[in-house]
Amino acid sequence: MSNLTIALDKNLLRRARIRALQEGTSVNALLRKKLEEYAGEPQEPAHITATREFLALAEATQGNSQGQRWSREDLNER
């Protein structure tokens, strides 16, 4: 775990410590929670998400071929 140093007004820090004590927590825990909310969870790149969704949809979809198979020649008829 890394450390972070911030500059705060003395009165602000005192009020924060008092409130944290009343709530049974610490200023450190409150700041950690707020930073986690702010930063959010790491996101998967959009192209990977789209690929996963496409593959899931392809697996779940039934084709309308009714079991018929086509040859390369059938598909390339002009």
Strand and helix layout:
Blueprint: H1 10-22, H2 27-39, H3 46-60, H4 72-75
Q: What brief labels describe this structure?
A:
rod-shaped; 4 helices; mainly alpha; 78 residues
Brief synopsis:
This protein is mostly helical.
Fraction of residues in helices?
A: 55-70%
Structural class: mainly alpha
Distance between the termini: 65 Å
Task: Name the overall outline.
Answer: rod-shaped
What is the average of the pLDDT values?
Answer: 90
Element string (H = helix, E = strand):
HHHH
Q: Can you characterise this structure?
A:
This protein has 78 residues and is mainly alpha-helical. It has a domain at 8-59. Helix content is 58%, strand content 0%. It contains 4 helices and no strands. The chain starts with 9 loop residues before the first helix and ends with a helix.
